[in-house]
Structure formats: structure tokens, C-alpha cells
Amino acid sequence: MIKEANGKLGILIPGLGAVATTFIAGVIAVRKGLSHPIGSLTQMGTIRLGKRTEKRNPLIKDMVSLASLDDCVFGGWDLYPDNVYEAAVNAKVLDKDLLAEIKPELEAIKPMRAVFQPEYAKRLTGKFVKKQTNKMKLAQSLMRDIKKFKKDNNCDRLVMVWCGSTEIYIEESKVHQTMESLEEGLRNNDPNIPPSMIYAYAAVKSGVPYANGSPNLSCDIPAIVNYAKENGGIVAGKDFKTGQTLMKTILAPGLKARAIGIKGWFSTNILGNRDGEVLDHPDNFKTKEVSKLSVLEQILEPERHPELYKDLYHKVRINYYPPHGDNKEGWDNIDIVGWLGYPMQIKIDFLCRDSILAAPIVLDLALFMDLAQRSGMSGIQEWLSFYLKSPQVGKGLYPQHDLFKQKEKLHNTLRHLAGEDLITHLGLDYYEE
Ligand SMILES: NC(=O)c1ccc[n+]([C@@H]2O[C@H](COP(=O)([O-])OP(=O)(O)OC[C@H]3O[C@@H](n4cnc5c(N)ncnc54)[C@H](O)[C@@H]3O)[C@@H](O)[C@H]2O)c1
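Above: inputs. Below: predicted complex with nicotinamide-adenine-dinucleotide.
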């Protein structure tokens, strides 16, 4: 039984930068009828139900109970004190004219002081941070913020979506294994607990679903996953699947489906926003690189198809180039191999807008996590892999990167929640007398 989405849904965001402000401004603009929520499945997507002959294709939001945009309220944390209007102007993603029309609503959203330590994101210099130096005290301060926000805004439910910067690369270790070891680590200021993990801890401990839009380790540790599973908590991660990786997970399954070989895939990006500046540091780039590289290996399965993919050379580069701002340019050179080993090439030049692609993902993750919690689901929400570059999965499972399989999983999960038949696409029954 899905509980109805009555009352207000508070969407809390650590990191009110380009993605977050584009998301918030977008929802407010849509609410006012100034624009359309393009790219969002919760707002524009339809879903087929039953047999093809039944012709039932409702909007997803008419099929399951989702929070309406009118019921969403926004809050967040940042280490710069700018309100959301100022931050959106600085991010230079949306037109000033559009921002001017919604200025009062955006100005009213002011960040709370961040949990931030510069050793985890070395290019950031903001000073609007919490004063406590102990990580457990910082987590407790976040939990007080969460409680206060809920009360002040009269929210029925909350969700949290991390839109903060990419942190330095951290691997899972002993401190991350159990809630006891994590809490011990928080009390002892363990260096393997970065700020994004402190937010994730505060969220799950407060019963707030948490999605991780960056490649940070954050909620992808047994301590948090198991706690969420056992306590009706919700986690999803990691790293919004937007520009180049979105293209990769659209194209690679298609080439593989036709047994076309791939010898090399060279991907390079130039971007000039703050994210690009943070990723210009090798320690932060490493976190992103790991997230971006895993995709092809899983989709192509070279061990099963050695003649096609054994020698694949895959390289990903990100270069900070200020003149491009948020308008990232992603180039791909793909060396493919056809019948009898004849080589061919595909070139992609994707002139994308990073935050324009990421904003609808924030919305869908927020609304679907809220749905998951109202439906009594708990733990990792693998059905939300569709939105993520490095999907978090249960122990012993490999992540599914193929966008089309991810979409089927998402649709089938929605059908399952709504008590509808799952669709296998077998379709033989149409041809039976
Ligand atoms: N835009 C995309 O297409 C895309 C795709 C995948 C992932 N991401 C990830 O999403 C995140 C946000 O991207 P963006 O373009 O908005 O970056 P951004 O630099 O514009 O915004 C990030 C914001 O987070 C703040 N921040 C950093 N650490 C924080 C902390 N500990 N607490 C609170 N605030 C903190 C920064 O001050 C900044 O305002 C990044 O991690 C990025 O890698 C973005």
C-alpha cells in the first residue's frame, strides 16, 4: 500500500551551486507556468500498462502518488552565504530575465552553514561553515538543522539530495563497516569520513531519504546502507548521469547489441564552471575518473566477448576551461570494428549544458525517493540507477549501466508498486488464436 503524498515535501540540498540552483529555479518557474519540466520523467514521462491492445499509457505522475511541485519546499547548506538567487546568477546557467521573474522566491532560500573541511575539496575557499571541529558534533548540528527546517516549513516529509562538490578519492575501509565503527570514527575525527558522509549519516539517522549526486563515497558504505535497510531508510547513488556518460550508456548497448567490436573510446571534456575547477585537482578528478570508467567495462563484458572488446582502450579526460562556463563540450572518438575486422570511427561532439541535464534528475530522485519511502521500501534503491553514473547496488551484485535495462527496471518497479503486471515484451499471446 502506497501512502498518499499529502502535505509538504521538503527537499534539502547540501551544495547550492549550479545544479541545485538550476533545479530550484526550474521547479519554481514551472510552478508559475513560465516553462516546461523537460527531461523529468516524474513530470512528463508516460508508462505503458497492460497489453498493447489496452492502449493504457498514463503519465507516471497519474499512475503513482507523487508529491506535486506545488507542495515542494527547498532548503540547503553551502560554504558560501549567497542566497539561491545570487548563487543562480553566479552560476550563469539560466537567463537573467527568467531569474528576475522569480527573484523573491529564490532570494528567500538562504543556505545553512555547511559542514566543510578544505582538505576534501582543495579548490574551495568559502567560510560560511559550522564552527564545531568534532565530526560527531557536526553531524548532530546537521540533525538539528533538519529538524528545524521541517518544523519551520511545516513539512510532512523530507528528502536530501547531495549536490555538493566532488571530494577527494576515498576507499571503503574499516571505519565504514558498521554503524558502531562509523559513530566511533565520527567521535574520533577519522580522516576517512568526508563531509558528504556526515550529511548522509545525519540524513539516514533522521529517517530522511538520501541520494548522492556526486561520485563521493558518501552513503555507499555498509554502515549506512545496512542502517537504512533495517530502519526503513532510503539511499541512492552515485553521480548524476548527465552528458558524456549518458551518451556512452545510450550508444554502447546499441553497438554491443549488434555485435560490433570496439577498440578504443577516448572521451575528453572541457568545462569552466566551479565543478570543473574542483575537478581540475588530481585528487578530486580521481574520484570522478573511477566513476566514469566503470561504465563501458560492465556494458560490454569483454570477458564474455574477447574478440569484440578484449583490447578496448578507454580513456576519460576532464579539462578546466573557464570560457565555456557551465556549457560543457564533450568529445568522444570511438574506434569500432565491423565485419571481417574492418575499422570504422564514430565522433561525437556533445555541446551540452551540464546543469540543464542534471536539474531534472534531482527532481526525479527527490520525488521517487519520497515515493519509495511511502511505499515501505528500504535500503539501496537500485531502480533509480537510471539516473546515476555509478549505481549503488547490493553486496555481490554488479551495477547495471545499460540505460535501456535501467529504464525497464524503473518502469517495472513503478508497475510493481502500483499492482500492475510487469511487462516482459514476449508478446506471443498476441498471435495465439
Ligand atoms: N552538472 C552535472 O551534469 C553533474 C553530473 C554529475 C555529477 N555532478 C556533481 O554534482 C555536484 C554539483 O555540481 P555543480 O555543477 O552544481 O557544482 P558547483 O561547484 O556549482 O556546486 C557545488 C556547490 O557545493 C558547495 N559545497 C561543496 N562542499 C560542500 C559541503 N561540504 N557542504 C555544503 N556545500 C558544499 C560548493 O560551495 C558549491 O556551491 C558535483 O559533485 C558534480 O560533480 C554534476
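The chain has 16 helices and eleven strands.
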